[in-house]
Amino acid sequence: MTEGLILNDVTSGYGPTHVLDRVNLTLRPGERLAVIGRNGAGKTTLLATIMGLAKLHHGTITLDGKPIHGLSPHKRSGLGLGLVPQTRDIFASLTVEENLLSAMRGTATLEEAYALFPRLKERRRNGGAQLSGGEQQMLSIARTLMTGPQVLLLDEPLEGLAPVICEQLMQVFEDLASDGRRSVVLVEQQAGAALKFADRAVLMANGAIVHDGPADQLLARPDLLNRHIGVALNA
Ligand code: ADP
To answer: For a substitution probing ligand 1, which of 21, 45, 202, 229 has the most ligand atoms within 8 Å of its CB?
Structure first.
């Protein structure tokens, strides 16, 4: 029995364009994976391909042994894949609570979301447009959690946020990953924070995975990060 999420020889992109080039990746249940690479390396496309938001040109994607690459993003979400997109997926015209209720599925509850993000409870009657950047990111994460994902895909969740909010969010990711119910894929420019969080890390360049190994190994090798990726350990 092949458990977890497996990308086998995946080439994908947008329309006729190829962005990912023969990517092989296995994400085991409960695993924490950091995805690191320069702008344009293909990190967002990797998540989009997993969710069914990019065009698959070649290869297969399976979740717990079942092929999912023919399924719509909605069906993949129903099977336990949850993406928090870089664009922060919230409705500006709805209140915080309405945003959460509109995403709710299965056994998820408002109480769980508010326990994770007390700030959202305080702001529950505020409109999405009235929230700070950090609060919008919390709401976007909470909306995805309302779908009960077993694989949580986070696309640069710390981008543009104050250090104190980044620390709070990293603690939330820690809590989410350590309850053993889900695996977490963290795409981050702040390589230091991502590598401290993750068990395993992949480095991407030009649509390919150029390194795949234990995260602590990479943390101890800033020279490797710099040579292949040119990212700074800034967290
Ligand atoms: P990263 O997340 O690592 O910054 P992306 O996956 O966003 O990288 O982008 C990888 C490549 O795909 C880039 O060359 C980018 O220009 C291209 N790309 C991204 N989104 C689209 C799109 N919607 N249509 C066409 N090309 C795209």
So the answer is: 45
